[in-house]
Amino acid sequence: MSAQQYTASNAQVTVTIEEGEARGATARLVKNIEALRQTTPETAGERIWVEYHTVRGYGGGLFYHEPDNATGRDDGGSLIVTESGDRFRREWGTKEKGDVLLWGADPTGATGSADAVQRIVDSGLTGTIVFPNEGVFLIDRTVSMQPVSAVASDGTVTRQGEARMILRSRMWSHFGYFRDRAAIKPGPEVDGAMFSHVYMAEGLAFFGPDEQRDGHVYHALELDGYVNKITRCSFNMPNDGILVWAGANIDIVYCHFIGCQNAVRTHGEGEIVTTYTFTANLCQYVGHLMNCAGQLWGSQFSNNTWEACSGSMVVAQVIFNCGFVTNWIEGGGNEDDPVRIIDNTTYQQNRENWAAGNNFHGGGWINTLAPSDHKYDNRFGGVNLDTNKVIVSEATGSGVALRTDGLQQYLDDWKGRVELAINSTSNRNGGADIGLNSSNAVNLRASNGYINIRQGDGAISNENNKPILNYPVSKLRDQEVDTSLELQPDRMNMFRARVPVLNTDPDNSGQKKVRRVPSAMPFIIHWSGAYEAGQGEDESAYFDVSEVKDNAIQVYNNHMETRSPRLWVTTNDTGVDFDHWEVIDAYSGSWSSYGVCKGFRLYFHDRSTGEPVIPDSFDMMLVNSW
């Protein structure tokens, strides 16, 4: 009703209705809802204007008589039952059905408003409870957002399931309460949640830092635990701001927590808690942003401010697959006994997480997001982009850091000695190369003195597929020809090479052809007498058997083959010359068929007489052919 006209007639006050369906009509005026309950309708369908609900100036409106309604339950805001059993229903018009003032809430804070809010829930008329932007509302008992499933004859209410109702206002304030803005305060009787089974809350200011509790412990919201969104709310209180059993798909966004022991606390030890999102929350003088009694999986913490706070920002038994991005940590902690900014209560269970752009400014903190001085043990496991490096680490301590000056591996005491590997893969087009392109030298250093070149995991295991070292030779002999020197182990694992040379046709200098001359590193063998199988010295170890037989020195190896060998033999005895050599087959027909042998018979003769003779010693250079 936008305007009122009062007319005295037979001690009865009437008003002219200027809104709703009955615009222009008149209605009796009663003081409040309790007065309406004392009213008897004069005509069927009579309209009555209620000046206010419970507190003068708030919650009144137009009600109309329902003569055919004999069973409707008095819900305290939408349907009122009189002492005579008549029923009056509120005409809502454009009013929000969830407006707490229309159900008897007291915006002065002098009396409790919990019953009024509970009446909205129990009415089932709306999915949204709306607090105005001004006033102070005292919640003197827990309001359950669970729907009513049954009402006993004595009025006892049974609740079951979830109503998925929204608590909404626009009364957010920095510290929870300003004189010209609304606040929701707990009464001293509240022991537990102010609101339980909450689905969503937006724009609410919870304020109660100085309440005397008489041993009672309260918190603002207890969530129903699934797909909850708490947005633009402020919590100024000494205990928990939000409590939830485990939970999943819960967003805490643009909220302010001040003085809370825990901004959010989950109970249920060992439970897997997943998919929480904390974004752009301001925390001041708070113990923990997230205190999880179970395992925290797949959750995100981004753009939060952790200012002058005392404890770890996040605490959980296990922290797994979570992200920490651009959080601001300023002051707080403990200078004498630094506090872990992210703390897993189960040892070394901070795993497979990622972090980037987190900032620390003063305070006493152990930065478990980006460990310094290579201290990884029981710290951050996952991918970290802080401190001008990329770190991939495990919670046990092993990790790899990509820094501006290179790549470095760190090993923990549990990992064992594992290589730092750079691998490529292949597809139908072949295997991918790995390129090192330096503007200066490429330096290979090994603390144990070894540089190992091994065959790749995907390579075919045969003698013709050993790694080849290509050394580019550009502009060969000042000609515009690019080619390479190929260096590769041979069958006996000695280096062999193909050295590029340029050939031209003297009749056509434009016809250039690169050929590769075979070259190989020889074995150098010194023999100074026969020895039993396997008893030779290193200098003769190419052959594991040496014997003198039939005027020849026989040397061979039963464990490896020699292909198309080239031999150069010199004696160390004056007057003795090398005569010739013969092969010893590796197996029947190996030499005639494949040019393969296992050893040689070496013949010597006296220089003067030409008679066969056995020298005291000789030296041999042996090269395997291509």
TrEMBL record:
Source organism per UniProt: Kushneria sinocarnis
InterPro entries named among the record's database cross-references: Pectin_lyase_fold/virulence
Protein name listed in UniProt: Pectate lyase-like protein
Lineage: Bacteria, Pseudomonadati, Pseudomonadota, Gammaproteobacteria, Oceanospirillales
